[in-house]
């Protein structure tokens, strides 16, 4: 399943989930592996960091233009169609597509060379406190599109004269050499509009609709109202293509020290959640996504942070449906200046931000875009790159605020750049210090260092515990200590009106790489700060969070 709703009624589309042929580079032993999936789930590839090739056949009944969309390949893909290279993509966490014109009816071959190796070619997937898996790890769709088809639709809601309005941008792509006239029709909640556009050969044109809507409800945490936005492309009087999006009417603004949703101040309370599950790797199944969501909602969250990369759209669809507000961020974790000076870094970040916003723009649940978790924001060169990425986000989307989670305490020189200032703080775990005093120091420094009069989020707080390790001494690594530290931290942060949100690190234990100077010191080669373990078995802190999020922070 690609999304939690049908995205086409007219366009021919087929999902390529299932068993693909696989072979590891340099070996001709044939395997069959599931897609989506990680090769690490197979006993022969538990720790395999290398290259492999996935292959499958597809049958086309009538000829046409083929469009392949990969929602995620970890971490680099080279895609071949009948032996011709049609796509190259870096980054496991963003989708990419490729079109092949005038394909004949009959059987065809798709081959995907996948690479999850580390090295200079990979500036973002590096040895880290999460695992870079290998495989076609998110769903794949196969479509037949007309010469002129709908590339994407972006919906930007806003309030005007007390009524919900929206700008709808429909990007249409013309694969043919000829100029084509097309009619674009949009319908939402009984409202219908249409317009005619002319698309020159081999180009794209954007049709823009400005609409006022009657009888629609706002999207909110308490009442996440969603609407289907149907876009149809009419060519020569025939309905030739369509795209269905699901949207919500809501606005997000930053005013002074608060974040406002639909004009009301919000307090974000939730978890940092890695896409990692014991038996799935990063190819988290829908069932396990739903289980994660059910457990987080059982703990009374209203938000989630997609640490540290764009998430699977099915999870974002779940957040839309459940009213869970999302901090989605580009792919980066803990990169020092030397890492950011990798010659591939800036392009790989730029591509990730563009693909994240282009593909996830319509999710009402996404209320903030984040960048560069704990990267080199204490350096002038780092500042240049932070500013470049914030500017890129604003050039694509002015409807959402920006932020970045810093750990450059007292040295960060980028706090003036984002709309919201966020900091990661592990008082009581990495530093035995009074939580409230350390919090006061941090906020006073933030206010003097460019972050004055901005909303502040504690983007990480937490402690580790080994599941099942109970100790009446409440010593470090016991479940008791983790519960105590999370309680003590939340007591401070959720009772400080200078703070507008908290994200606990982290929802579930996750696998980390054995490579890297210190990750190997992680017990079990896992980051053990989850309030549930990688099998989603709750630790004592689960009930602590459930109680604290019920007690504080509003609905
Ligand atoms: C950092 C980082 C997280 C995780 C955490 C920890 O704040 O942002 O990804 O590594 O520390 O567990 O230490």
TL;DR of this structure?
By secondary structure, the chain is an alpha/beta fold.
**Poorly predicted runs of 5 or more residues:** none
DSSP summary: helix tally: 8
Terminal Cα span: 31 Å
Total E-strand runs: 30
DSSP helix fraction: 10-25%
Keywords:
555 residues, alpha/beta, eight-stranded parallel β-barrel, 35% strand, binds alpha-D-galactopyranuronic acid
How would you characterize the overall build of this protein?
The longest helix has 17 residues, at 380-396. This protein has helices spanning 286-298, 313-322, 337-340, 345-360, 380-396, 435-448, 479-493, 541-551, and strands spanning 12-15, 18-24, 31-35, 51-60, 64-70, 76-81, 84-90, 96-103, 106-115, 140-145, 148-160, 163-174, 180-188, 191-199, 203-213, 227-235, 238-247, 252-255, 258-261, 264-266, 268-272, 303-305, 325-329, 366-370, 402-406, 420-424, 456-461, 501-504, 510-511, 526-527. The protein is built from eight helices and 30 strands. The protein is α/β, with parallel strands linked by helices. Helix content is 18%, strand content 35%. Helix 4 packs parallel to helix 5 (380-396). The structure holds alpha-D-galactopyranuronic acid. Alpha-D-galactopyranuronic acid (ADA) binds at residues 129, 307, 333-334, 373-374, 407, 424, 460, 505, 527, 529. Residues 55-123 form the Beta-mannosidase-like galactose-binding domain. Its EC number is 3.2.1.31.
């Amino acid at each position: 399943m690609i999304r939690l709703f049908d995205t086409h009624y007219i366009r021919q589309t087929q999902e390529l989930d299932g068993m693909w042929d696989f072979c590891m580079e340099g070996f001709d032993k044939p395997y069959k592996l599931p897609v989506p999936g990680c090769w690490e789930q197979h006993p022969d590839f538990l720790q395999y960091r290398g290259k492999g090739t996935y292959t499958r056949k597809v049958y086309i009944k009538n000829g046409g233009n083929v469009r392949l969309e990969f929602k995620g390949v970890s971490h680099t893909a080279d895609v071949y169609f009948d032996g011709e290279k049609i796509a190259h993509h870096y980054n496991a966490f963003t989708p990419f597509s490729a079109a092949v014109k005038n394909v004949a009816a009959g059987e065809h071959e798709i081959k995907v060379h996948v690479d999850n190796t580390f090295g200079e070619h990979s500036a973002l997937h590096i040895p880290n406190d999460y695992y870079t898996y290998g495989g076609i790890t998110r769903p794949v769709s196969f479509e037949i599109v007309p010469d002129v088809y709908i590339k994407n639709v972006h919906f930007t809601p806003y309030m005007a004269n007390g009524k919900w309005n929206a700008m709808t941008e429909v990007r249409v792509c013309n694969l043919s050499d000829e100029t084509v006239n097309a009619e674009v029709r949009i319908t939402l909640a009984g409202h219908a509009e249409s317009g005619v556009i002319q698309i020159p050969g081999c180009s794209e044109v954007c049709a823009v609709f400005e609409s006022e809507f009657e009888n629609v409800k706002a999207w909110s945490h308490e009442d996440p109202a969603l609407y289907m936005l149907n876009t149809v492309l009419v060519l020569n009087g025939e309905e030739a293509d369509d795209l269905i999006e699901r949207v919500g009417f809501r606005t997000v603004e930053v005013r002074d020290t608060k974040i406002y949703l639909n004009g009301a101040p919000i307090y974000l309370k939730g978890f940092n959640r890695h896409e990692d599950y014991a038996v799935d790797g990063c190819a988290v199944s829908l069932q396990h996504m739903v289980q994660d969501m059910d457990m987080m909602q059982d703990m009374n969250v209203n938000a989630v942070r997609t640490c540290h990369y764009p998430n699977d759209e099915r999870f974002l669809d779940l957040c839309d449906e459940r009213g869970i507000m999302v901090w989605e961020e580009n792919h980066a974790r803990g990169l020092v200046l030397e890492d950011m000076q990798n010659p591939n870094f800036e392009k790989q970040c730029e591509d990730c931000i563009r693909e994240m916003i282009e593909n996830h723009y319509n999710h009402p649940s996404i209320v903030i875009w984040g960048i560069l978790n704990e990267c080199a924001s204490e350096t002038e060169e780092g500042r240049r790159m932070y500013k470049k990425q914030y500017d890129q986000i604003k050039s694509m989307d002015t409807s959402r605020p920006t932020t970045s989670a810093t750990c450059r305490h007292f040295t960060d020189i980028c706090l003036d750049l984002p709309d919201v200032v966020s900091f990661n703080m592990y008082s009581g775990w990495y530093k035995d210090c009074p939580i409230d005093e350390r919090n006061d120091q941090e906020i006073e420094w933030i206010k003097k260092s460019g972050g004055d009069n901005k909303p502040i989020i504690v983007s990480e707080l937490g402690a580790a515990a080994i599941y099942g390790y109970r100790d009446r001494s409440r010593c470090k690594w016991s479940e008791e200590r983790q519960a105590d530290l999370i309680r003590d931290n939340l007591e401070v942060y959720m009772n400080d009106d200078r703070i507008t949100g908290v994200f606990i690190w982290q929802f579930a234990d996750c696998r980390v790489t054995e490579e890297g100077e210190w990750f190997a010191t992680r017990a079990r080669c896992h980051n053990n700060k989850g309030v549930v373990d990688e099998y989603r078995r709750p630790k004592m802190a689960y009930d602590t969070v459930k109680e604290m999020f019920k007690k504080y922070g509003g609905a």
